[in-house]
């Protein structure tokens, strides 16, 4: 899965770098930051560093690099165990305690593109999840990026560090890694467990996660009717509305904590996403009186607001957000494989997508919903 232009100019050098360029497999691209490679093996002013695309061992000597790639122990398969596999992309879990040298080499390489994140000596307390693409023509594989996670996080962080290597960026692969990190955090098995990435986030990480959270909440709110069935349209409910009475848009009272529990997101991340979508309106006084308030809530969490599904739908269309989750439940393997999958989708097939989208928009306009946040 080599890009058309192997030389990446995604970021201009902002600091002094001990390595100017790296060769990863058959790709040559520029580094962004300095890494703590040992000076006896990598000089302070190295123009080109050769890095094995399978195990991330490094060398300044092209011949030594070539000899290693012909005998690398990880030529055919990554280390660790596979946890996810779908559409040619897979995620492999590598334990830093049992693959210490591999984890250290990966961390050294990653530091060339990360500003304030660095894990090198303490790899034994981390798990590393490799994003791998396998070429269907020859079964060769490429490591495209990874995320790391503490084995024991007191803050319930589901991710410590994330990086998609420069040649593979801007391909929505970061969202795939983020989605896997939320799935593996266990929130769907234990509704009381809420997690998120380690903070503070970098500027790039903040932008990426904001979009990820926005899309996650958009899917949840817009698919709620599909998940709950047609209960709202049952004949019993229709008979309860007297003739001549003006039908009010159905609504539901919900807190940001409820949304967080349903999506596995922290309350602060839910608020960030809702504000980012511009889907929040100030509640009118009449609606404020109907909404319960608790003395324990903070000011941002207790102030009633309205979230309209029609606005979220507009946001989703403007940002070309698909309602299909990019992470497929049936892609998880091993101990993470689900025991009974029931996928929910608003479209039955590709040919009916246009008609279904139009019908969904009409239903949203007809049955607008407002929530508290």
Describe this structure in words.
- The structure is a single chain.
- By secondary structure, the chain is α+β, with helices and mostly antiparallel strands.
- The protein has a domain at about 15-75: N-acetyl transferase-like (Wheat Germ Agglutinin (Isolectin 2), domain 1, 2-Layer Sandwich), CATH 3.30.60.60.
- About 30% of the residues lie in helices and about 15% in strands.
- It contains 12 helices and 13 strands.
- The strands form 4 sheets. Strands 5-6-7-8-10 form a 5-stranded antiparallel sheet, sandwiched between helices.
- A hairpin with a 2-residue loop joins strand 5 and strand 6 (about 90-95).
- The longest helix has 20 residues, at about 205-220.
- The protein is elongated.
- The relative contact order is 0.10.
- The model is unreliable at about 1-15, about 230-240, about 290-300, about 340-355 and about 365 (pLDDT under 50).
- This is histone acetyltransferase.
- It comes from Aspergillus steynii IBT 23096.
- It is an enzyme of class 2 (transferase).
- InterPro entries: Acyl_CoA_acyltransferase (IPR016181), HAT_MYST-type (IPR002717), MYST_HAT (IPR050603), WH-like_DNA-bd_sf (IPR036388), Zf-MYST (IPR040706).
- Belongs to the MYST (SAS/MOZ) family.
């Amino acid at each position: 899965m080599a890009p058309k232009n192997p030389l990446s100019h995604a970021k201009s050098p902002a600091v002094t770098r001990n390595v100017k360029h790296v060769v990863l497999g058959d790709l040559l691209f520029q580094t962004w930051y300095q890494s703590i490679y040992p000076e006896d093996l990598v000089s302070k002013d190295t123009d080109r560093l050769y890095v094995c695309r399978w195990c991330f061992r490094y060398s300044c000597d092209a011949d030594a690099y070539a000899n290693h790639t012909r005998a690398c122990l990880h030529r055919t398969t990554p280390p660790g165990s596979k946890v996810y596999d779908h559409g040619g992309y897979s995620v492999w879990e590598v334990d830093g305690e049992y693959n210490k040298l591999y984890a250290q080499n990966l961390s050294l390489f990653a530091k060339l593109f990360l500003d304030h994140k660095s894990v090198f000596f303490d790899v034994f307390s981390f798990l590393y999840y490799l994003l791998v693409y396998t070429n269907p023509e020859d079964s060769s594989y490429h490591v495209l990026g990874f995320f790391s996670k503490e084995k024991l996080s007191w803050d319930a962080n589901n991710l410590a560090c994330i990086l998609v290597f420069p040649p593979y960026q801007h391909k929505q692969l970061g969202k795939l890694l983020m989605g896997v990190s939320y799935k593996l955090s266990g929130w769907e098995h234990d509704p009381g467990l809420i997690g998120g990435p380690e903070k503070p986030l970098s500027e790039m990480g903040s932008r990426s996660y904001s979009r990820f959270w926005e899309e996650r909440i958009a899917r949840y709110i817009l698919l709620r009717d599909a998940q709950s069935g047609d209960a709202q349209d049952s004949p019993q409910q229709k008979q309860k509305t007297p003739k001549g009475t003006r039908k009010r848009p159905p609504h539901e009272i919900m807190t940001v904590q409820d949304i967080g529990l349903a999506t596995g997101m922290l309350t602060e991340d839910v608020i960030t996403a809702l504000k980012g979508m511009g889907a929040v309106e100030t509640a009118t006084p009449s609606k404020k009186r109907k909404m319960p308030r608790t003395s324990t809530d903070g000011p941002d969490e207790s102030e009633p607001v309205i979230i309209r599904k029609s606005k979220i739908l507009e946001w989703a269309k403007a940002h070309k957000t698909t309602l299909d989750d990019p992470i497929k439940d049936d892609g998880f393997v091993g101990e993470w494989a689900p025991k009974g999958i029931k996928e929910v989708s608003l479209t039955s097939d590709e040919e009916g997508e246009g008609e279904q989208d139009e019908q969904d928009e009409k239903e949203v306009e007809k049955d607008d919903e407002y929530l508290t946040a």
